[in-house]
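Can you make up a polypeptide sequence alongside its tokenized fold?
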Amino acid sequence: MTTRNRDIAAAWGYHTATNHTERSVYNSSHHMDFDNQPRPFKIYRDLEAVTLPSGLEPSGTLALDCLGSAPTHEHRAPTLLELAGLMHHAAGITKVREFPGGKMYFRAAACTGALYHIELYLVCGDMPGLPAGAYHFGPQDFALRRLREGDYRGLLVEATGGEPSVAQAPAVFILTSVFWRNAWKYQARAYRHSYWDSGTVLANLLSTGRGYKLPIKVVASFVDEPVNRLLDLDDRKEVALQLVPVGETPEHTIAPAPPVSSLGLEVEPYSRRQVDYPAMAEAHAATSLDSPQEVSELWGKPPSLAVYESQGRLFPLSYPPAEELPQDAIEDVILRRGSSRRFRRSPITFQQLSIMLDRAARPVPADFLGDADATLNQLYLIVNDVAGLPSGSFVYRRDLGTLEQLEEGDFRDQAGRLDLGQELSADASVNVYSLTDLNAVLERYGNRGYRMAQMEASITAGRLYLAAYAQRLGATGLTFFDDEVTEFFSPHAAGKSVMFLLAVGRPGRRG
């Protein structure tokens, strides 16, 4: 029987319909109604705040050691203070700036348009300082609000088909997206941003978890309906995206969850009126799973990247001695990170680029990759100004630890063109694109693979962000003309689809 997840025409239909073209961008009549801009927080009207502990203790772990390194952890439960640290460094407020129109609350992870539509929930058993329950994290007051009392981890175990990391986890985070908060600016393309923006949050979560030496993993395959129901979500407006089990207590058995009834919780309206983009809800429904059997079939066995003989000149990555690597702790880098709005045309070094690529492109601990040293995306680069590397286009050969040159030349103008004509890509030292063989991904995972490829690309970009800021560089995520990017990197990239673009360089002063 063909399930809706296996009707991959749906994922292709959404992806193609939301591709950026000259016509879609320059002929669009859409404008942002700032009088109707959504608030950036989910505010429950009647739930009591449970203030999280302050005085977060730094892990003392170097940022670069937390980015994609082999896991070193203890089989233990996280403390409430560690959970608070994870929430703060993944989705908390790190900077507040005042503007003529009010205050802007910047978060720990980058988000398209700084619209912060990703919400964070916690489902846990009894732990010191926090009773078992399902909670919502409020960054505006650094507090939890309990949606349900009791241990509901059993529901997550069942929804994930008994996924081992969930079945042994004392605590599980759930990331969601509030569609309207991003679609206000980006319309139906905002469904892609659900995974772009949750991916950068996940990069921070994984990196901070490694700093705390906690077992932590991304679970992208689960039966959607019960998870949304647990959080009392209207799945036309807000949906669960990923589960992140934290900690490991194999000696404790998780009991079946209590019954889940509708709560009817009241949330403050995000804005005066809301515009629905049916393509987002339709894409999410098409990528949803209906049974635990469907879930377990998506574990591991990722499609292999094409193996081929190198055609261009190879540039092996180059690293400085360990004692010369940046010594900032992961928390310090996360708190310092921003999104550059201007680059100065100045080179970065090949060693700096090598460090970023090596750390960022390591395998993501995720259910759909299993134990494989695998990735769904390949990195392509436009190098504008990297000392020790000729300008031109490249592909990163992770299997060889090298950059393979595709074409030499000055492509600053083309880089700016591909970024919808913005100056950021033209001024950046290097632009890093994640491309995937979407046909192969959808063949393996069905429509759910669309979520996975977008999310994995963004986790890689989130790591690139952190590796750049660890080296006192700047970075920013950008959008692009989809088909033109593929064409630019072809014939090597022929048949591939663009998932993400990150520009890296030396920050310039704002105009």
Q: What stands out?
A: DSSP finds 17 helices and 18 strands in the chain.
